[in-house]
Amino acid sequence: MTNQDHLSVDLRTDVPHSARVYDYLIGGKTNFEADRTAAHASVRAWPSLPVSMRTTREFMQRSVRHLAREHGVRQFLDIGTGIPTSPNLHEVAQEIAPEARIAYVDNDPIVLTHARALLSGTAVGRTCFVDADLRDPESILGDPRLREVLDLARPVALSLIAIVHFVLDEDDPQGIVHRLMAALAPGSFLTLTVFTGDTDPVGVGGVGREYNARGIPLQVRDRAEAEAFFDGYRLLDPGVALVHRWRPEAGAPVVRDQDIAMYAGVAVKD
After folding, report:
1. Helix (H) or strand (E) holding 45
2. β-pair type (157-160, 189-195)
3. Which of 224, 235, 164, 159 lies closest to 194, judged by CA?
4. pLDDT tens-digit profile of 172-223?
5. Residue 7 has pLDDT above 60, yes or no
6. Distance (Å, rounded) from C-alpha 173 to C-alpha 230?
7. For the chain, which has fewer Cβ within 10 Å, the N-terminal or C-terminal residue?
8. Mean pLDDT over residues 81-90, rounded?
9. Is residue 33 part of a domain?
């Protein structure tokens, strides 16, 4: 990415942006007043939102470590990357397997301006960044940069963390996931989280209203809708669970179910 690329990006700092709101709520510094205002309004609606977001980030790290250590996964496709917050997926994977290869995908201007932070992998591994939209799976799978880094004839772990709630039902998010998985080799994995109001319908519903009122479309889903994303694949234990209950590490801080608004699951394509 050149300096000119940075200059040509319109960050629209006067309106809230989902990636920057998330960044602020997990303690990042890449955000502006409009993002902080939206974040504060969402937290007023549901004070547990920052806890849920941080716990979701921790699930991503645990799931990557599990797939790299226990299943030998060496290729990861991360769609909906967001603003880089260390440790990023490639840092987690390459700490275990320096030869791991990671393709990051996002189409948000704010993420593009920080893409270089995602390209600093190990000498023996590879990373790339693809500017593409989750709603157009073919543009992702056919991108030459992705094909240079990932061999789709070998297993790949598809990672969709904190992203599908920004894809409304009218755009068929389950169908998008299945089209992506259809292109991956047997032995590939799907790691996915789904924003839910099952644990606190009133509070989480308030978050949804705040996001939508500020021009950030967001859809809250229940457990059955979360499980539908994994139809046709074999779920690893413990199946679809709240993020803090998916293979928690020994000594992890205690988190209450009512403070979490995200289901998670990891499944394999046999």
Report:
1. helix 33-45
2. parallel
3. 164
4. 999 999 999 999 999 999 999 999 999 999 999 999 999 999 999 999 999 9
5. no
6. 12
7. C
8. 90
9. no
In the chain, the number of structural domains is 1
Coil vs helix vs strand at 129: strand
- Contact of 134 with 105, CB cutoff 8 Å: yes
- Asked if residue 264 belongs to a domain, the reply is yes
Q: Is residue 205 part of a domain?
A: no
Q: Which CATH number characterizes residue 66's domain?
A: 3.40.50.150
CA distance 191 to 167: 16
For residue 16, is it within any domain?
no
Domain containing residue 66: 50-200+224-268
Average pLDDT of the segment spanning 97-126: 86
Pairwise CA distance, residues 30 & 36, whole Å: 10
Give 228: exposed, middle or buried? Use CB within 10 Å, 0-12, 13-18, 19+: middle
**218: number of Cβ within 10 Å:** 18
